[in-house]
Design brief:
InterPro entries: Flavin_Rdtase-like_dom, GntR_C, NADH-dep_flavin_reductase, Split_barrel_FMN-bd, TF_FadR/GntR_C. The chain is of the alpha+beta class. It folds into 3 domains: about 120 residues, Pnp Oxidase, Chain A, CATH 2.30.110; about 70 residues, Winged helix-like DNA-binding domain superfamily/Winged helix DNA-binding domain (Arc Repressor Mutant, subunit A); about 140 residues, GntR ligand-binding domain-like (Four Helix Bundle (Hemerythrin (Met), subunit A), Up-down Bundle), CATH 1.20.120. About 45% of the residues lie in helices and about 20% in strands. The protein contains 13 helices and 14 strands. The chain has a 7-stranded antiparallel sheet with strand order 3-2-6-9-10-5-4. A 3-stranded antiparallel sheet has the order 1-11-12. It has a two-stranded antiparallel ribbon with strand order 7-8.
């Protein structure tokens, strides 16, 4: 007797982007040459396929001019980027007329272009292609392979960074969530080894994240014995966190929106509209919205090009603390959909004054809602 299963709800674009963004990957620039003309684009969907024979796969959007060049030449090179080549990754991801301007290129033994400063280089002959959705998967038989000393560039949750940095940010995000969801009650002592086991990270990483969270006021450290305890959220502490968070984003909008790259702004507008269309009927949908919303606003802050500012912005988020309160009518009715629509319009028009006004309204709403949620729970969360 077979069990009838209910039809699955299709995964929407925003949810999928959020989930797949948690898969950290290396970064490559795929290149080829047609005579004197060079083509190249940034690709994170690149992987080894086989050792015998040595083969790799690279996935390129079919709308890319580099995609078409690979189809014509039947060959490509992959420059695996080093930690210092984040600017190159951004450059080759944008629709510039000449991405190679000012870029030093070496030609490998197979006469394919490789970027100077790379961590590793591979030259390939395309053996077959397959179409999947908006992309083509190129199967490449490896002709040459070489490595250089250095550390890799990584791509994680929409941002480029160093491997160690991505690992530390992931650990910090997991620890923050663990603390805010009260795996240990307010005032309780945090067992570092138990926390490390729960999160699947090292005790050293746990200690480092607890030190960081203590500066944000989410944990308290006993100066005498060095132990950490869970600190309560109060109206005052949440006010300070949100004041800092919105000051960062408003400052970035005022300083960088007018001259931001059109591709980056268009992407932000699209993401804002997608967020505004998300349903908020279940706890899972509300939780997904909060995570995607944080990623979106962090992407706005990323217009500054400052990793430190982006990390400081994320440190001010206490969204996970509100999950037990998300059935409250205040959150369900006013979680920010209307404001997101207005924000999308302001960003698209590069209207700094309008964007600032929307952010100020959102700041006031979130702070008032947080105060209300804390108040009904006796002043502490």
């Amino acid at each position: 007797m077979t069990q009838q299963s209910s039809p699955l709800t299709p995964v929407n674009d925003v949810a999928f982007r959020s989930v797949i963004g948690h898969f950290a990957s290396g970064v490559t620039i795929i290149t080829t040459a047609e005579g004197e003309h060079l083509h190249g684009t940034t690709v994170s969907a690149f992987s080894s396929l086989s050792l015998d024979p040595p083969m790799v796969i690279a996935c390129l959007n079919r709308s890319s001019s580099t995609h078409d060049a690979l189809m014509r030449t039947g060959r490509f090179a992959a420059s695996i980027l080093s930690a210092q080549q984040g600017e190159l990754a951004v450059r080759f991801a944008r629709p510039l007329e000449d991405r190679f301007a000012g870029v030093t290129v070496d030609f490998g033994d197979a006469d394919l272009p490789l970027l100077e400063g790379r961590l590793a280089g591979i030259e390939c002959e395309i053996t077959e292609t397959h179409v999947g959705g908006t992309h083509t998967v190129f199967f490449g038989r490896v002709l040459t392979a070489s490595v250089e000393p250095g550390e890799p560039l990584t791509y994680y949750r929409g941002q480029f960074g160093e491997f160690a940095g991505a690992r530390e940010r992931s650990a910090l995000a997991s620890a923050r969530r663990w603390i805010l969801q009260r795996a240990v009650p307010i005032g309780g002592e945090i067992d570092v080894e138990l926390m490390a086991s729960d999160l699947g990270i090292s005790t050293t990483a746990v200690f480092n994240t607890l030190v960081s969270l203590s500066t944000a006021g989410l944990v308290a450290r006993d100066e005498e014995d060095g132990t950490f305890r869970v600190a309560p959220l109060t109206a005052e502490s949440v006010d300070e966190l949100y004041r800092t968070r919105f000051a960062i984003e408003i400052g970035v909008v005022e300083e960088y929106l007018r001259n931001a790259d059109s591709t980056d702004v268009d992407r932000l507008v699209e993401r804002s509209r997608e967020l505004a269309a998300l349903p908020l009927d279940t706890a899972d949908e509300l939780e997904s919205f909060l995570e995607s919303n944080l990623d979106f606003h962090a992407a706005v802050v990323a217009l500054s090009g400052s990793r430190e500012l982006g990390e400081r912005f994320r440190q001010c988020s206490v969204a996970a603390a509100w999950l037990p309160t998300l059935n409250d009518r205040l959150w369900q009715q006013q979680l920010g959909h209307e404001l997101l629509t207005g924000y999308a319009e302001a960003l698209g028009a590069r209207d700094v004054a309008a964007a600032r006004a929307v952010l100020q309204r959102q700041r006031d709403f979130v702070r008032n809602a947080a105060r209300s949620a804390i108040s009904v729970r006796g002043g502490l969360m």
